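Look over this one:
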Amino acid sequence: MKGHAPRKRFGQNFLVSPGVIRNIVEAIAPRAGDVIVEIGPGLGALTEPLLEKIDHLHVVEIDRDLIARLRQRFAPERLTIHEGDALEFDFSSLGGSLRVVGNLPYNISTPLLFHLANFADSVRDMHFMLQKEVVDRMVAAPGTADYGRLSVMLQYRFDMERLFVVPPGAFNPAPKVDSAIVRLLPKPKAALAARDEALLAKLVLAAFGQRRKMLRNNLRDLVDEPRLIAAGIAPTARAEELAVTDYVRLANSLAK
């Protein structure tokens, strides 16, 4: 931490708890030969213990001061630094069976998760530290307050599990909220039933546009009431009442 002031614009909260770091590395269970990319390595809290288990690590970092520190600390044959914004990084450029890890910046976590979902075909698994409320939304069940667009779109593409909660005191500076570790496993292609994934995304976005309104209102521009009924969807239902399979079925009925 010495010599680096955390930058608010990059959402920097550095993990400093040895116990939490150990638990995260154990959850990832890195093995020799794994292709791992760490998003936002920061001061190397996870980087160093990961490199104790594997020969080479990729990292994506935007902060030039931190990049300079990483270059001083780790040999280039052990650590490849991809300088730039993770929101614009092409993760498929690193090959297949990729393992993605990181303490994700809270200020870009949702758009970053949607960006990473685009590379699910290249990914074996992902382990992230996120704000607990974001993880709760990711794994939320239909009919709950946390269930929303993020839940539907990520649950369509991944099997997800909240592993454990991390208190603010594990960081410097301490955030004002709890964090949590989540594991994402891409579903096999055979399990992805949507005929048109862009249409599914458009439908889910519209459905949750105004949560308190009925679907017949939110989806008015995409589907009429008879089509909702034909797909087994009550026009008076609200977005959070539909399971992921309901959205897929409705999208497929529109894609015919």
